[in-house]
Amino acid sequence: DRHGSFAPQLIPKHQTRWAGFDDKILSLYARGMTVREIQSHLEEMYGTEVSPSLISSVTDAVVEEVKAWQARPLDPVYPIVYLDCIHVKVREGAVRVKAVYLAIGITMGGEKEVLGLWLAQAEGAKFWACPRFCVTGPQAGDCHLTRRHHEPTHT
Predict the structure, then answer these.
(1) Helix residue ranges, H only, the chain
(2) Do 99 and 143 belong together in one domain?
(3) CB-CB neighbours of 22 under 10 Å
(4) According to the UniProt entry, where is the signal peptide (predicted)?
(5) Do 100 and 136 reside in the same domain of the chain?
(6) Could you tell me the pTM of the whole model?
(7) What span, in angstroms and rounded, lies between the C-alpha atoms of 155 and 121?
């Protein structure tokens, strides 16, 4: 309006998207929905059309954050490193169960830090022996787990 008295209820003035909308898109994407399925779901739930390019821009922004996280420098020493594997459902045409290997380090200050996540077809001890890691240690109990820098970390 001309007097500036209009106050939008859903999206505050000077914002282009409603707070939490990106989180909704990411939540649906994380559940394995395609861009078209997300678009259809949002239209059904909120009665508004959302372009595929908007959905892609939201999911692409997360991909960039993940790449930055993967390339971050790690502490030189983690006195304790936990290695584990969990099984998750992944959508690749059909829903399949895949293994996600994870390395969690405890910092010198006692904080937990995820060192890496890797997706594999199945769980097996051979995973940790592959060249993505160099495991060494001349003394008993002295184990060094080093992420190779030329190997990309996959999620």
Answers:
(1) 21-30, 35-46, 52-70, 126-129
(2) yes
(3) 17
(4) none
(5) yes
(6) 0.58
(7) 13
In a structure prediction context, what are the per-residue pLDDT tens digits for the chain, which is 155 residues long? 577 666 655 555 666 566 678 888 888 888 778 889 999 998 898 887 888 998 888 888 888 888 888 888 888 888 888 888 898 887 777 788 888 888 898 999 999 999 888 888 877 777 766 645 544 444 444 555 555 444 444 44
Instruction: Specify whether the CB–CB gap between 41 and 27 falls below 8 A.
Output: no
Do residue 58 and residue 84 come from a single domain?
no
Which among 69, 155, 86, 144 is positioned nearest to 118, based on CA atoms?
Answer: 155
**How many CB atoms are located within 10 Å of the residue 102 CB?**
15
Please report whether residue 152 resides in a domain.
no
Q: Which of 72, 99, 117 is the last residue of a domain?
A: 72
